[in-house]
């Protein structure tokens, strides 16, 4: 296996195309005029395309010639069914991508770079969905109850086996509706609480029929939150069936032999492709050195990858990906400064590190690209409205109290001292670039005014004070709030401390409680419900407004301001810790339940606007500042990486900007 | 002597059992478990969270809903009866395989560090004692204390920054990228030598200072004893005399600390290893503790404890051999 040093990756200029024949590589310089006359077409940036441009990687050509691999035509889907990926420039084959991954817990980074293959796709800018993906197309009936999935004819798994309707049937019936593997079916297969049925029409067609309208189906299959989400083309039946007792009576024995407790253990282990090189995938690269062994995780080109560029050449361009396992962020930072990471937008890309990285751009041979946050706030303070101390909960539920606290925060001071003067005061409201943007919502109660704050707090009934000037609760005790803060973002603790000081000025005794993140999670669960108040980031608010609902209303395990109401929503009232919410959040929940059943996207947006309107009136949580764009480091030689792209875990960024079309040049 | 060893070995069994019990309880003490940590990690990296059903399923799968004593018994009985240390949740591999992958390098590093410490501290300690209050004594003492006082991970970060800024070398790890996964060869060994001195020097600095001071103090005591004066008076050469008698006595601390060095073989210096990105068992332990990956953490701690006990035994034997006064008590 060829190992290449950083900075020694084969460099070919964009105007030169690598032509390989019989194992020798020759560089051919193109004349711009020569090809136009032949009508051979041009690459997306207007340069002529070489008629002799290789359509597959030289190493694959060699393997075909040696008889190890069927020819390209037989490996790709039939011509009409190939997915053509448009790109800024047509690339050349070769090169090794060098990246970093922070050990086991960081497997999502591998998923994000390698494994973005949803059934349908969003465009790279995340504006439009329902574009062709692993599926050629999906047809829907008028009532949005019947979805016909059309597969690509001739598409292959990475081991050369055909991808067929059988694989989808397997995923639906044997995996996602299998109660041994999934306690309850995933939301993709449900509408109105009932599961869909799958019917195989022919080798390349499956129809899913839902008992109720499933208005969000197309949107939901256009993204993959991560590999274990309900991706119906994630399980190669011919491989995975051997681990299911329904198909293989020895499944339990195999699992035991491999040293696993039971077959579900082994199933999960074999399913996680980053730890299992044997598992066939649909990804551009196949793991050869798994994440849980050694110091480098390696993935190599999938010879059966089913996408082509606009010149008809098979993707991906880059031969091989190497992710060094680095646990320490400081080490990653040093590697980035040294130009050893080809494209990275995680772990060390903080505002505080930006000057250091900017300084190293020239010597390290990399540049920055803008990463647009899809969140709307740097930090959000959530007061626990479901507090086990009913009196405290009542104070927190009082809107005047929250408004008072919000006015007693000097947001500009926090932005200046903690966030390098980046950002502007902002509530938990949609981003200015969002179609749902509402200036009044975003700016309400952000003014720093202690008198106003005092009058709101007085209006909340907290007029008595102790000898130190702190306000008293109705029971005569001093009103104390413990604010749980984790060390995930180092800015949170100092910002919270500034808030503590100004709150003290209006007589609210808040203590910053810095805790480890697993403890943070433990305390805030609906079951424990031990937190007074805590701090988290403002997820959602741009591009994914309707998908990430945690701050709009109590909608799930991340709605820290009312975990018990949130459980009511997520379990439809059945949860052990569920508490029925008051009228306003209840109304929001009903609207939210209605959205997926609404086939018309415009009508869905109307419903969502009403949810936002209620969120604005209720003012559940206190926001601090609008985040400014982040950045990724990109090697100067790496082409086809856009200058700016949105970042969202729901879409596994950078998956949606198409790593298979990245290539190296000079 | 044999009875002494046998008795020590017998005591080892209940001691180990007690240690394993305490270890397991300590790992279980913090609130939450592997799964809560995992959920927090996923959320921290912006990768969503597991659904409640998925969590319940995983809890049952790992037996995390069982009482602690059941979990402990499962764990320890598998180790004792089958030599099976259990599986690491984080890595989804057996603990034995993980340790086997990392132990050789860890031991190599630790042995080299030990040799480095002895090689440096022994001559300096002797020199400092014999030339007490000389310029050399002060210089070495100062350097030694500096090594002791500055945290290892800080030295590591500074060294990495220097090597990056002035030499532009790739930082972290024990091998250059091209040798990382290559099979062992002379070239790979050479590559290892060019990297391995950094952690050895970093770890060595702290241990060196302590050893210099102890050796110096002991030797100073010895040098003033009447037998030394008497031997000198009889015309014995100073250098030979010092090496043959006082130094031998003053070396007791070298042997009595073997017991502490052995567990270092496996636990290594976790933080420095983490910073230097070394694939030793140190970061593995750190990671396991952070993630509450209890089988992995428990196994490493258990093996460390075993090594402390064995190390102490070896220390006692070595001391008994070195110093007849110790031996005579038994």
Please write the string of helix (H) and strand (E) elements of chain B: HHHHEEHHHHHHHHHHHHH
* Average pLDDT score of chain A: 88
Distance between the termini of chain B: 7 Å
Low-confidence residue ranges of chain B: none
Which overall shape of chain B is indicated by the principal axes computed on the Cα atoms? globular
Number of helices of chain B: 17
Alpha carbon gyration radius of chain B: 24 Å
Largest interface: A-B, 64 and 55 residues
Mean pLDDT rating of chain B: 79
Instruction: Give the class of chain B from helix and strand content and strand pairing.
Output: mainly alpha
Number of strand elements of chain A: 27
> C-alpha Rg of chain A, in Å?
27 Å
Task: Sketch the major β-sheet of chain B.
Answer: 2 strands, antiparallel
Helix/sheet category of chain A? alpha+beta
Major sheet: arrangement of strands of chain A: 21-20-22-19-23
Q: List low-pLDDT spans of chain A.
A: 1-42
Largest sheet of chain A: 5 strands, mixed
Q: Enumerate how many helices of chain A there are, as a single number.
A: 22
The counted number of beta strands of chain B is 2
Helix content of chain A: 25-40%
Physical arrangement of strands within the biggest beta sheet of chain B: 1-2
Task: Provide the descriptors you would attach to this structure in a database record.
heterodimer, A: 666 residues, four-stranded mixed sheet, globular, disordered N terminus, B: 330 residues, mainly alpha
Concise summary:
The complex is a heterodimer of chains A (666) and B (330). Chain A has 666 residues and is α+β, with helices and mostly antiparallel strands.
